[in-house]
Amino acid sequence: MNRPSTIAIDGPAASGKSTLAHALANKLGYLYLDTGVMYRAVTLAALRSGIDLADEPALTRLAETVEIDVVAPTVADGRDCTIYLDGEDVTLGLREAEVDAGVSIPSAYAGVRQALSQKQRRIGERRRVVMAGRDIGTVVMPDADLKIYLDASAEARARRRWLELQAGNRSDSYDDILAGVRRRDEIDSRRAVAPLRPADDAIILDTTEMDAPAVLDYVMGLVGIAGDDTEA
Ligand code: DC
After folding, report:
1. What are the pLDDT digits (tens) for 128-174?
2. Which of 22, 79, 83, 223 fits a 20 to 30 Å CA distance from 71?
3. Quick check: CB of 13 below 6 Å from ligand 1?
4. Ligand 1 lined by 188 (C-beta under 6 Å)
5. Ligand 1 atom closest to the CA of 196, numbered from 1
């Protein structure tokens, strides 16, 4: 069986897409691209320059002009990759609560999506890739060789995000995180442009009762390689 060259991983907030995509890319020696960071970078750029997130034309211009680079980690602080926004390392800033709360707004704008999808495709064309997001299998790489759609209950996802934030010394309450996860699910799946949904040919995996190694093992099975037999 031929190994898939392009792998799309979609799913709602905190469904484990980035963890899976990163581990999979490491195992396979593929490029890893978490497309959510691009929407976050545009949101951060707007917040910093005082642009109202409701100003669609301004946000679209920003997405078209801003320079976003996603590279291998430059600091050993547990990050999956380093993200530069117009040359500045903004990796940590992209996870701030203000960005979390606002990012679904520009993500719903057609112009923003078009500009970022184009950047994502360009990166994906360079080599074998595992790309994670919301619309990778449906819009960005509709011809991907393997499409996975990860899901999990909102409670399980909120708990994972809560544990992650606790580990990073953030004291956000579980209830606030759960409310945020539900709000983003609602906006991401109801938007008119590229709403969150599985591609018709995606394999849907509910990870509510699975931990990260079990998800990776399952997907390595789909790729055609036993989880433990390959080099990291
Ligand atoms: O995966 P994440 O939580 O970092 O994504 C942040 C936001 O970006 C999310 O609310 C929806 C949006 N997003 C998107 O619309 N399309 C993508 N391909 C990736 C993310």
Report:
1. 999 999 999 999 999 999 999 999 999 999 999 899 888 877 788 99
2. 223
3. yes
4. yes
5. 15
d(CA 39, CA 61): 13
Closest by alpha carbon to 136, among 16, 4, 17?
Answer: 17
Those residues whose C-beta lies under 8 Å from the C-beta of residue 122, and which sit 6 or more positions away, are: none
The tens digit of pLDDT for each residue in 84-136 reads 999 999 999 998 889 988 999 999 999 999 999 999 998 888 789 999 999 99
Q: At what angle do helices 174-190 and 154-167 cross, to 10 degrees?
A: 130
Nearest CA to ligand 1 atom 15: 107
Residue 96 to residue 90: CA distance in whole angstroms: 10
For 129, the 3-state DSSP assignment is strand
Q: Residue 38: left if φ>0, alpha if ψ -120 to 50, beta else—which one?
A: alpha
- Which structural domains are found in the chain, ordered by start? 6-221 (3.40.50.300)
How many angstroms does the Cα of residue 61 sit away from the middle of ligand 1?
19
Cβ neighbors of 173 (< 8 A, separation 6 or more) are: none
Joined together, the tokens standing for residue 203 give 């394999």
84, two tokens: 């530069």
Q: How far is the CA of 133 from the centre of ligand 1 (A)?
A: 6
